[in-house]
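User: Structure tokens for both sequences below?

Assistant:
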Amino acid sequence: MIATEQGSRVKVDREVTARTGPRPELGPAFYFLAFNLANVFYYLFLLAMAKGLSAQDYGLFVAMFGIVHLTAAIGNSVQVTLAKFTAELSALGEEERLGSLLVAAAARAIGLSLLVALPFLAGAPLLAAFLHSSSPIPIVVGGLVVFLTLLAPITWGVLQGWQRFFLLGAVTLLNSVLRLICGLVLVLAGLGVSGALLGIGLGLLVSGAVGLGPVRKAAAGRSGKPEMGAVYAYSWPVVIATIIVATPSSLDVVLAKHLFAAEQAGIYAAACVLGKVIVFLPLAATFVVFPKVVRGQAQGEQTGALLGLSLLITGVLSAVVASVFMFAPSSLFATLLGSDLADAGQILRWYAPAMFSFALVIVFVYYNLAAGRTSYVSKVLLPGVLVQIALWLVGGHSPMLMAQMTLAGSGLLLLASVLYWWSPWRETKVGAASGAPTGAASLRSSYR
């Protein structure tokens, strides 16, 4: 029996190597490089928009970008869910079942994207008034972008679960490059905030299509009709988690646009744009570790060392960037953002350590989701973000104070995440070991 299990594992490992290429160990390194190059283009895009738009329009753009990012967190949950089940089914040698899951997931993702985008479009006039926009057109364009951000993660999730980091890295980089080129061209053409948002949509559309080939091939080999109960049971905590994760770095700019004068809102938005690099820079390491944790859990291996590695990489990279922002001279911000937004540097000195704390929180979020410890969402993540929102509403009387409240909320959430990891009331067993089937096992049983 043991020899049979070992033989099956060798076969699965060979299949993984065949998918990822002859040098699969280079895949994570390439993805890490491509992901961070994509972040460079992402920030060039945001800086180009800061240069190309007026302070008032830039405040509206960042607020819209925050709304798109917040609602598209549902799309991120699609990616996380598909990555988990793809990795589990692959680890258990159930590749032939994956096609049915992909077809079913794609159909539901299309319905979900319509469900989210259509009310967004219908409420454009009200949202335009809330954000003090003179036209609802940027809101409508934002709704179309939301539609695309809910579909593209289908491709990305499967590639991540398969650990096809070469292709995933290439698609990620392509998305960011096209966003910069298209957005800049459209803004220079006079389309303003709508042009900047259209650039985001075009990048998603093209990059999603490029990565579709392997997914279509897997879907073509579908067999049977999967019971989606296990997928839904896992996906709902993931949906909540990804929306919550997007909140501390997105909702604040929306509230700032509503609470502050246009110039103050633009300055706060500029600080947030720069500060988010602290979160995004090490994020590739978390995405690489996620399917490895899922695979290790499915095969009964210990994965705590992967959490430690992710925290180490994230902590070092985030600390370096946060230190630069905290101690950089004001002239740097004037050069990057222009004289109108140079005051963002003072706000960033508080916002940078907040994003450092939040970057470490994200490591805990994805690790617990990969390990199947979904109670982390209800016990730690949701209460922590509710506290953060309360701090903003109570103390958000100025951009500086709002940044300080962001630091307080992120610090509390990080402390709670560490306590959860060491506490006896977190799940210590996952899946079959705790008497309940794992996600992949539940999915697999539905075919029999």
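Moving on to the next sequence.
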Amino acid sequence: MSRSMRASLFAMVLLVLTGCAHTSNDYVGNNPFIPANYRAADALLMQLSSSLPAGNSTLIVATLVNIDALENSSTLGRLVSEQILTRFTQAGYRMIEMKFRSNIYMLQGQGELMLTREIHELASSHSAQAVIVGTYGESKDYIFVNLKVIQPQTNVVLAVHDYALPLDDNTRSMLRTKRY
């Protein structure tokens, strides 16, 4: 084996080993934000495994909204929605990306908000079997998050999960609604 081949082989092995060292739990240091949202999505996925199988199901994720002001969201609400969408996509669900749709109720800086009266119409126009909606509320030390998977034709809740995120400097900064 030539010297250049050995060097190339060594570089490839090093690259593979370096890639393997980063697992799905290796995010931003010890920050619990992404793992907590992925665990929440996993809890919903477990509840849906028999009633809404992956592979042939289409879902829409709405931006999570502030429980005290349902017309408002924040960076936190938009990021949680994105991470839930990511996990459902990884599980094999067909997810509709709402940010590219011009006929959806959107507010600048808010993301796609899902109002109850719009669920049926929106899901029908995209042939979605379910819509994931959610709220969050801030307390002294935590942000409490509620996620629901709703069947749009009947408004029946198919899955639900509650969890809490620590209210630290990172999450506090994501709660600010005005971004420039």
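User: Anything stand out in the second?

Assistant: The CA atoms of residues 110 and 130 lie 22 Å apart.
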